[in-house]
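Q: For a teaching session next week I want to show students how multiple molecules come together into a single three-dimensional assembly. I've collected the sequence lines for a complex. Could you give me the predicted structure tokens for the whole thing so I can convert them for display?
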Amino acid sequence: MSTATATIYSVDVPQPKQHGKPGGIMRRLNFFTGLAGGVILAAVFGFLMNIQFASGAQTADFASASAGPTFWAIMVGWVLGFMGGMGAFVGPIRWVMGRDLTHADAEFMAGKDQGKFRYWRFTTDHKVVGIQYLIMAMVILGFGGLLAMLIRTELGVTWAEVFNPDFYNSLVGTHGIAMIIAMIIVVSGPVGNFIIPLMCGARDMAFPRLNALSIWLLVCAVPPLILSLLVGGIRDGWSVYQPLNSQAGPGMIGYQTTIIVFAVSTAIASVNIMTTILTMRAKGMTWSRTPISIYGVFAAAAMGLYAFPFYQYSQILSMTDRLINTSFFDPVEGGSVWLYENLFWLLGHPEVYVILIPSTAIILELIPVFMRKPLFSYYMAIAGIVGVVGLSGLVWAHHMYMTGWAPQANYPFMLSTEMISIPVGFLVLVIIGTMWRGTFWSRLPMMAVFAVVFNKMIGGVTGIYLSDVPADQYFHGSMFVTAHFHYMLMGVALFGAMGGVAYYFPKWTGRYLDERMGSIGFWLAFIGFQITFGSMFVAGLQGQPRRVLQFDNLFNISNWISTIGAYTIGIAMLIFLGAIISSWRHGEMAPSNPWQAQTLDWQTATPVPLDNFPVLPVVKGLPYDYGVPDPLAPEKVEARLREEYEKAGTP
Amino acid sequence: MADTMTPTPGSGEQPEEPTNRPPALHRLRDWLQRRYVRHVLIITVVIGFILLPLCWLIVAAMNQTGAPASVVMEDIEQTVFVFTLVSIPITAFVFAVLVYSLFGWKGKSGDTPPNEDNPAIRNNLVAVITWSVVTSALAAFLVVWGLMELASITNNSFGTQPANGQVKQEDVLVVNVTGQQWVWTFEYPQYDKYQSDVLYLAKDRPVLFNVTSKDVVHNFWAVELGVKIDANPGAVTQTGVTPNKEGIFNVRCAELCGLHHAYMETQIRVMEPDTFNSWMRENGGGKTS
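A: Of course. Below is the structure for the complete assembly, covering every listed component.
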């Protein structure tokens, strides 16, 4: 590394000088220094702010609203301290100082020769980031799932209040937002970061350092959410409607911090994924030879890039309403609650497709592999994804049919919302068309297809009710809505993601996911899921509102059944988690292409080398070239019929 | 036409005679004669009939507390019924494909793919067009139905009244609904501004709700009447209904409004018009305006 120049096309390009060991200060920084930095800076900021506004924390009453500024300072301190301690600011500082990364520095940053400890660092390698996303998704899912169990306990114990209403409301809100975050990253994170560059035939993501930044911003965003449970909590549901929001304690600042940081993380990750897909696909991988899951993840990234700024903006305005007495959303001062609702749902609806589309795309990706058939009507799958993306931005106000914001707008929004069933129908046709007339390879990932299609039909049909204003006039705000979106977000997205985990597990870890234990967990979860949310539909039809902890005796039976189902899901998920952990540690070793798939991600070695491919691949066709020529192809049938026709017609 | 095995377009020099092309119906009949097609269709019909009772069961679940108590609620239930009915064929078909894939075409496990000889069906224009047309037609039907029902409900619930709250009809009962954490207050401006925390209504007399809130967003949900509208602070939203059934019904809050959201519910009592008027007189409502 001592050469001062490198020769490219006979032009001398000045190379940055190596200062000290490769990596420099990054050698000393890791998750633990980040944690320490975050805690220390949070304490310092909180202390300083408390001197200035000595009202809340001094009385040790963090739950009082007057602790707002202090809690805000703590949050700012945490974010800056954690990211600083992680080394997120080292890059910009080096850039200002004119010390660009040398090759050795870059290799260190990518985690070369650091063993398992590279997972704890600000590592730029997309494979490390993908695994970090997977772990984070599982951690947040576990946290949200625990809250779900507590919620169902409260609702199952119909004869008493287990928790006080405030804590129950916090549980509901925190469960909601935690699960939303987890579901957004559970496919787009591990698949988008680990698999997509491999599938594109690239050596890394387009912006490796931004990649590391996006995952560590996500890690940074989670503790405020958990911490907020201790200081008043998120008592207003995950949508935190104004002006109820402004009544909550400083826990709401934790929520706002989480969203603002997470939105930055999502924007960075989206730009990174989109740039990678747009510019770094292998030679020959034209848009008509691109695997469908690349389309899916690209669509999710594009929708996220469009949707999350609205969310971030709404939360920044909420924060200023709370802290410096602006009144964007305070009707007493001339603000508007409908403004908040619009901003929120401008995120809200694209966001569910940010969750659904990658999961569906993974399902579309693995069906051809396990059916050993080409993807049926590839162009229709693209049309379906594009159609959903195109409509996703035009439907947000269907969450606001009953708000009185603009009754006349209900007509066009009903039209656009019901039109979404057409592109979604395309995707269903692609799935059943690929299953048509083929025997399937009965492995766990393929099983997920059956579960997902089943749930998608139920979630889709109930979605049609909700998209319809007259029916929504009964269902809006009832348990029916809760059951519907759980069918979509859990039944389709999470079960699809579980199939995706089973499918990509050999690439991620070099081992098979334990088929037996995984299947038991998966199908038990499926059964529990049907019980839980099937009976929740009944409660909704009977007229139980959402987010209530006590209700008429009428709803008791369906809630008891629902709670039993929820515990089943809990146990099943633990079994599935157990399968993941035990397989990861000592599962059966898998070859580099265990499913004999044709996409590029399976054509490289396992474990994937640092630069992915020894020689960059060249693509010659669509990677769904399975099966034998169809004996019943329409042209052959036509020929046979013509022959019969002629025979019958002419003597 | 000797070379019938490779009739790909462009391979033959002579153009095919149009009379030689088998009619579409023949191809359809040939397709219907295949074993798996028949099985899938039979399973579709069976699943369809299994799902059919859902149309009534769903409405029955909605009716458990006495609904429908108004034309609006009847419209809502009719919509739900029709939507269920229309969704069943396509749901049944997809489920039938799943079932036949599991038990008809079947699967095999193993470490290597056991099914490399599956037919490579890349596309089927007829299937794609049929599916697109059918789903689009169903969606179009649902949209048109929904728009018409919405127009009818809007008509039945004063949705087209001017925002100043002036009511055209003479006999309309006006109720000012105010939500606050965590009670509903009903004020009758035509009855000396009589206030109540139970909603009293007269049977067959149209009622106009002016809904607002004192603090946060609530949602005024008269369950069995099929009325639902947000109560927003700083704004009045309007809706209305004509109850057509006597009885005791529920008002619930359908928008999370804080600590005691779950307990923010009250009763609706729908009475005969005469009983209603005398009840109002007895309880301080004074003269009818």
